[in-house]
Amino acid sequence: MKTVEPATSASFSTAQTGRSVRSYCQGMLPLTAKLEPWIAELCQSTILPELAQKQGSPLNVLNTQPFERNAKALYDVAEAQGLEFDVYFARKANKCLAFVETAKNQGYGVDTASIQELQQVLDNQVPPEKIICTAAVKSEALLRLCIKSGVTIAVDHLDELMQIVILAEQLKQRADIAVRLSGFQHQGARLLSRFGFDLDEIRPLIEDLQNASPHCLQYLNLIGVHFHLDGYCQAQRVSAIQQLLPLIDELRSRDFPVRFLDIGGGFPMSYLESETEWDTFWQTHRRALLGEHRPLTYRNHGLGLTLVEGTLIGKPNCYPYYQSPVQANWLEGILTSECEAGTIADSLRKRQIQLRCEPGRSLLDGCGFTAARVEFRKQQPTGDWLIGLSMNRTQCRTSSDDFLVDPLLIPATEESLLPRTPAGISGYLVGAYCTESELLCLRKLQFPHGVGIGDLIVFPNTAGYFMHFLESRSHQFPLAQNVVYDNDTNQAELDSVETYL
């Protein structure tokens, strides 16, 4: 990574004002962010604005220390249960190679979802046995690279399976595979998914391969079973594991060397400090949509809810920013759930099966933020203000309708050509794309001390998905730079992924 030398011509500091870094911006109903100490400290120093001036806006700032802490907590839970266990970091959640390097150094695995992700991970000397490819669509070139390099492939459907057989035969090399499965029974319903073979179909398929196509099997090394479930429900994971254990027994009885069960990702995390704030926001937002409270969102946007003949229908189209239990505690709840004559952990341990998982977002909890410069303030006829930032909404957004975490505002202390707005204004953060819908936050925000050109807006805890999942270069805007910050040395370096872009 290339060391970034901060510029020295600007001076920003909330410390100079004596105010908290949180005091300059809040939601009309606050949704207070959990803040890692390194983020709070950096936002109150001169280092961040100097980096932003040097590297441009927006800027992604990352730190790998929380990544190690979050992974270790998962390993500790598994170790307490006496399980063989491995974490495979879902790289799709963040493209920066600092996390790949950390995973390699700490002995974790890496989950890749494209040929570019895989090639970069291989270039960084991650051992092939520590890599799995779970790409939703796998090209022939990607499958070929997996087979040649010895990377395990999570096989999703019959076309993929047969293509692997053909390529492995051409390469004269067996392919390591894990069969991805779906269609589990849970509380009287089936957990349908676009990913994986249906559980009811896998046994006939295996029988057909053994009986009618034994030639194919000499090119396949079936070493694992795998699933991916949408959402964050513990009980659904328990149901899936319970239904896969008999399948593992059967596959082993048929001489398939299954040695791991991979439960995918979707480990929940919380972005917010307060469950009460989260519940209050949604209760009040529903009242606003019903006309019983002033709107909390731009033009009373429903965030997934729609008013139809006096009734709200739909469900929130937003990540559950407050959840409990989360991360290691959530995993522990799965492992200690009842199964067979004991617990899930007992059943896995009895079979000497390795448990694997592929978290992304939850491993990146606390690992980064996105900062952008205020370029204009514009008051609307309604009285609300639009605060224009040098960024676009793809640079802090996933498939959720909104980022439901209060941003931070860091005031500029150098003189601007234009004065700050009056104190106590409220309004919305808007971005650089030329559309009416280009809002960076749909929630209405208030600015007790006003807003000035050159202020920085910080979106906390964006390392997991928000930075990179949807980022776009429309209008030919450059992508945000990514710097890795070491809070022990106060040094920042450009992440080495920049050499691939």
TrEMBL record:
Keywords: Lyase, Pyridoxal phosphate. Its EC number is 4.1.1.20. One of its GO terms (molecular function) is diaminopimelate decarboxylase activity. Residues 84-277 form the Orn/DAP/Arg decarboxylase 2 N-terminal domain. It is an enzyme of class 4 (lyase). CDD domains: PLPDE_III_Y4yA_like (cd06842). The keyword Magnesium does not apply. It comes from the Bacteria. InterPro entries: Ala_racemase/Decarboxylase_C, De-COase2_N, De-COase2_pyr-phos_BS, PLP-binding_barrel, Y4yA-like. Its cofactor is pyridoxal 5'-phosphate. This is Diaminopimelate decarboxylase. It comes from Gimesia maris.
